[in-house]
Amino acid sequence: MINLRIRVTGLQSFINATNRAIAALDEGAFIEVIAKKCKNRAKYRAPRKTGRLIASIDYKLRKDSFTLSCDAVNEYGEAYPEILEFGLSKYIPIGTPEHPRVYKSSSGKTAHLPFMQWAIWRTLQEIDKIMKETVLKYYH
After folding, report:
1. pTM of the model
2. Which of 18, 74, 76, 81 has its CB surrounded by the most CB atoms within 10 Å?
Protein backbone atom coordinates (compact mmCIF):
# COMPACT_ATOMS: atom_id res chain seq x y z
CA MET A 1 0.00 0.00 0.00
CA ILE A 2 1.22 3.47 -0.91
CA ASN A 3 0.35 6.56 1.06
CA LEU A 4 0.94 10.00 -0.36
CA ARG A 5 0.80 13.18 1.62
CA ILE A 6 0.22 16.39 -0.31
CA ARG A 7 0.60 19.76 1.26
CA VAL A 8 -0.91 22.76 -0.46
CA THR A 9 0.70 26.07 0.42
CA GLY A 10 -0.32 29.52 -0.62
CA LEU A 11 -3.99 28.67 -0.91
CA GLN A 12 -5.02 31.39 1.54
CA SER A 13 -2.97 34.03 -0.30
CA PHE A 14 -4.61 32.92 -3.57
CA ILE A 15 -8.05 33.26 -1.99
CA ASN A 16 -7.16 36.71 -0.65
CA ALA A 17 -5.90 37.84 -4.07
CA THR A 18 -9.06 36.53 -5.70
CA ASN A 19 -11.21 38.41 -3.20
CA ARG A 20 -9.24 41.62 -3.87
CA ALA A 21 -9.67 41.15 -7.62
CA ILE A 22 -13.41 40.56 -7.29
CA ALA A 23 -13.80 43.62 -5.05
CA ALA A 24 -11.86 45.81 -7.50
CA LEU A 25 -13.93 44.59 -10.44
CA ASP A 26 -17.12 45.26 -8.48
CA GLU A 27 -15.90 48.81 -7.79
CA GLY A 28 -15.38 49.42 -11.52
CA ALA A 29 -11.65 48.91 -12.04
CA PHE A 30 -12.18 47.10 -15.34
CA ILE A 31 -14.59 49.72 -16.67
CA GLU A 32 -12.15 52.49 -15.71
CA VAL A 33 -9.28 50.80 -17.56
CA ILE A 34 -11.41 50.51 -20.69
CA ALA A 35 -12.60 54.12 -20.38
CA LYS A 36 -9.04 55.44 -20.03
CA LYS A 37 -7.87 53.43 -23.02
CA CYS A 38 -10.79 54.69 -25.14
CA LYS A 39 -10.09 58.27 -24.08
CA ASN A 40 -6.39 58.01 -24.95
CA ARG A 41 -7.11 56.43 -28.32
CA ALA A 42 -9.74 59.04 -29.17
CA LYS A 43 -7.24 61.79 -28.32
CA TYR A 44 -4.65 60.08 -30.49
CA ARG A 45 -6.97 59.98 -33.53
CA ALA A 46 -8.75 63.33 -33.05
CA PRO A 47 -7.97 66.25 -35.37
CA ARG A 48 -5.33 68.54 -33.86
CA LYS A 49 -5.75 71.91 -35.55
CA THR A 50 -6.35 74.04 -32.42
CA GLY A 51 -6.19 71.42 -29.66
CA ARG A 52 -9.68 72.27 -28.36
CA LEU A 53 -11.10 68.99 -29.56
CA ILE A 54 -8.44 66.87 -27.88
CA ALA A 55 -8.68 68.82 -24.64
CA SER A 56 -12.44 68.27 -24.45
CA ILE A 57 -12.41 64.46 -24.81
CA ASP A 58 -13.21 62.83 -21.49
CA TYR A 59 -15.20 60.01 -19.91
CA LYS A 60 -17.66 59.68 -17.06
CA LEU A 61 -17.84 56.46 -15.08
CA ARG A 62 -21.03 54.80 -13.92
CA LYS A 63 -21.50 51.62 -11.91
CA ASP A 64 -21.16 49.24 -14.85
CA SER A 65 -20.51 51.50 -17.84
CA PHE A 66 -18.93 54.75 -18.96
CA THR A 67 -19.73 57.60 -21.32
CA LEU A 68 -17.07 58.90 -23.68
CA SER A 69 -17.79 62.50 -24.59
CA CYS A 70 -16.37 65.44 -26.48
CA ASP A 71 -17.94 68.85 -25.98
CA ALA A 72 -15.62 71.17 -27.90
CA VAL A 73 -16.94 74.40 -29.38
CA ASN A 74 -15.32 76.57 -32.04
CA GLU A 75 -14.59 80.31 -31.78
CA TYR A 76 -18.22 81.05 -32.75
CA GLY A 77 -19.60 78.94 -29.90
CA GLU A 78 -20.77 76.13 -32.17
CA ALA A 79 -20.31 72.49 -31.20
CA TYR A 80 -18.43 70.65 -33.93
CA PRO A 81 -17.36 67.18 -32.66
CA GLU A 82 -20.58 65.57 -33.97
CA ILE A 83 -19.88 66.92 -37.45
CA LEU A 84 -16.38 65.46 -37.43
CA GLU A 85 -17.46 62.16 -35.89
CA PHE A 86 -20.64 61.43 -37.81
CA GLY A 87 -20.30 63.57 -40.95
CA LEU A 88 -23.48 65.56 -40.52
CA SER A 89 -22.53 67.52 -43.59
CA LYS A 90 -22.34 66.34 -47.19
CA TYR A 91 -18.94 68.01 -47.42
CA ILE A 92 -17.31 65.83 -44.76
CA PRO A 93 -17.31 62.15 -45.76
CA ILE A 94 -16.87 59.79 -42.79
CA GLY A 95 -15.45 56.29 -42.81
CA THR A 96 -16.41 53.44 -40.52
CA PRO A 97 -14.41 52.39 -37.44
CA GLU A 98 -13.28 49.21 -39.24
CA HIS A 99 -12.33 51.11 -42.43
CA PRO A 100 -11.82 54.72 -41.39
CA ARG A 101 -10.41 56.00 -44.68
CA VAL A 102 -12.85 54.28 -47.04
CA TYR A 103 -15.70 56.39 -48.33
CA LYS A 104 -18.09 54.87 -50.83
CA SER A 105 -19.03 57.57 -53.30
CA SER A 106 -18.40 58.59 -56.86
CA SER A 107 -16.38 61.60 -55.69
CA GLY A 108 -13.44 59.43 -54.61
CA LYS A 109 -12.79 61.62 -51.56
CA THR A 110 -10.78 60.22 -48.71
CA ALA A 111 -12.99 59.83 -45.68
CA HIS A 112 -12.45 61.67 -42.41
CA LEU A 113 -11.53 59.52 -39.41
CA PRO A 114 -14.24 58.86 -36.83
CA PHE A 115 -12.00 59.29 -33.78
CA MET A 116 -14.36 58.32 -30.93
CA GLN A 117 -16.10 55.42 -32.68
CA TRP A 118 -12.73 54.07 -33.75
CA ALA A 119 -11.34 54.34 -30.19
CA ILE A 120 -14.22 52.30 -28.76
CA TRP A 121 -14.17 49.78 -31.61
CA ARG A 122 -10.40 49.28 -31.33
CA THR A 123 -10.49 48.91 -27.56
CA LEU A 124 -13.28 46.32 -27.75
CA GLN A 125 -11.06 44.28 -30.09
CA GLU A 126 -8.67 43.83 -27.13
CA ILE A 127 -11.23 43.33 -24.38
CA ASP A 128 -9.96 39.85 -23.42
CA LYS A 129 -6.37 41.05 -23.14
CA ILE A 130 -7.41 44.09 -21.07
CA MET A 131 -9.48 41.91 -18.73
CA LYS A 132 -6.60 39.48 -18.24
CA GLU A 133 -4.14 42.29 -17.46
CA THR A 134 -6.58 43.95 -15.07
CA VAL A 135 -7.23 40.78 -13.10
CA LEU A 136 -3.63 39.54 -13.05
CA LYS A 137 -2.47 42.74 -11.30
CA TYR A 138 -4.02 41.38 -8.11
CA TYR A 139 -2.08 38.12 -8.21
CA HIS A 140 1.46 39.56 -8.28
Report:
1. 0.77
2. 81
